[in-house]
UniProtKB/TrEMBL annotation:
This is DNA ligase. Belongs to the ATP-dependent DNA ligase family. It catalyses: ATP + (deoxyribonucleotide)n-3'-hydroxyl + 5'-phospho-(deoxyribonucleotide)m = (deoxyribonucleotide)n+m + AMP + diphosphate. The active site is at K252. InterPro entries: ATP-dep_DNA_ligase, DNA_ligae_ATP-dep_bac/arc, DNA_ligase_ATP-dep, DNA_ligase_ATP-dep_C, DNA_ligase_ATP-dep_cent, DNA_ligase_ATP-dep_CS, DNA_ligase_ATP-dep_N, DNA_ligase_N_sf. Its cofactor is Mg(2+). The lineage of its organism: Archaea, Methanobacteriati, Methanobacteriota, Stenosarchaea group, Halobacteria. The gene is lig. It comes from Haladaptatus paucihalophilus DX253. It comes from the Archaea. Coiled coil: none annotated.
Amino acid sequence: MEFGEFADTAAEIEELSADSDIIDAVTDLLSSANDDLEVLARFVQGRVFPAWDSTTLDIGPNLCYTAIARAAGQNVSADDVEDRLAEMGDIGAVAASYEFGGQQGLAAFGGGRDELTVAEVATELDALATTEGSGSQDTKIDILFGLFNRTESLEARYLARLVLSEMRIGVGEGTVRDAISAAFDVPVESVQRALQVSNDYGRVARVAESEGEDGLDDLQLEVGRPVQAMLAQAGAVTDALEDWEVAGVEWKFDGARVQLHYDGETVRIFSRNMEDVTDPLPEVVEYAEENLAAPAIVDGEVVAMDDGEPLPFQEVLRRFRRKHDVARAREEVAVELRAFDCLHADGEDLLTAPLVERHDRLQVILSGGVSALTVTGDEDEIADIEANALDAGHEGIMLKNPDSTYSPGRRGKNWRKRKPDVETVDLVVTGAEWGEGRRASFLGTFLLSARTEDGDFETLGKVATGITDEELAELTELLEPHIATQDGQTVEIAPGIVFEVGYEEIQESPTYSSGFALRFPRFLGVRDDKTPESADSLERIERLAEMQ
Ligand SMILES: Nc1ncnc2c1ncn2[C@@H]1O[C@H](COP(=O)(O)OP(=O)(O)OP(=O)(O)O)[C@@H](O)[C@H]1O
């Protein structure tokens, strides 16, 4: 196909507003694409390379302005192009506004125009992307100039947008998925699945065209080609348990996401946006090569550890970016893998296996460095896991549907993240209960109250979680002098000690005298610097409840 025909179609699509019309237009484009099918399935989305491929054109805007300026003639500079861009706001419109030289030259010789084809654009852009080393900037400008020089207005518009990743004609991934389905009469679910495993619109379009539904269903994950990471929503423990009865609970590690591909010999690591970060992370590569028993695709987090505590995740990202002196960077900040999922193990794709099974396979295939996954319906147990995660310096917990499949790229409800509460409250301890068993000599389960305007204290919850044995001993020592009355295991405590408490939600509730209840309260510490008078008022609690 000539690039001009593609540009005409792109211009038509840009004018459409109804999704169904856009899908129809893309369907027509793909149906008539023939040899250019792979490329067109990408170009129409403004993509030059498959999504799994971390190759980029690596063209800065300036380089593109220089190429456009050169094609526009001697009197035009890159600054002029930039000025026009400031005026017009769209690099496509700017490129279209110039008359590029090549075609006039040929026309002058009486020949036809040297039509640029879609395949040529793809080949040239490939060449441009692989240009490396000294002088590569000039070579890139030469290649781009060569392309622009052969374009007419509309072609220039879409070429400029394509190379600067600013296509913006309203064609998203879903549009292309639906168009592939319509163009080649294959079920959209098969296209969707094939896209998830291959992460390659061009390839899926071609397989749909030549092998149909069966071909699509046969597509498998390929070790070495990253898939999109499954994502999480913010979520609450109570909702997760309501939905699933039990949740798979893990620490939410404070690091950066990675996908590790091991083909049995070598490991490659990809970041969340599928950049290849193998070279900057040699210790993770070594670890995985030593500890993986078979080819695998592993999902996890890389954390930077310092004396057993994670460093802020920015430190990990700095390691990801490090290209030179990696050995030195490694000495300064050591990183480690925390694996939590397995997409492929020893020749078998696991995307449709339930989470618990995938995690079991992960433990079999990788010795060490695997997250602890606890499947439980017990809120207290979950609170303890969260307290431990926070104590260890991590971000909170992940709650995962134990039966859920791995859905690449989706931010669904099957993974929920719970980070520590943004708001905390400072409440007065007005009661407690003696513990049982080995905790019999300790006070635990502390009753919490908020201050009212007239100096009273009204209860709004009990906290029993997030407290270590050592802390229980200290708290007992601190509170014992304040015990006012005792009835069996239950004690009344005179206001004197203030706790800082985290929570998930404040609900209206008849259970406590304040008319409110803290859901999922968690002990964060004693506010030695506060007296009951400076603890949080009931008014603030009401405000917080309203704000949710
Ligand atoms: N055990 C775990 N399971 C899944 N993801 C985890 C785990 N520990 C840490 N993470 C990280 O938490 C993220 C889950 O949240 P989300 O999918 O919303 O990503 P995000 O946008 O990077 O969010 P955040 O800034 O909260 O990490 C994952 O992308 C991953 O990087």
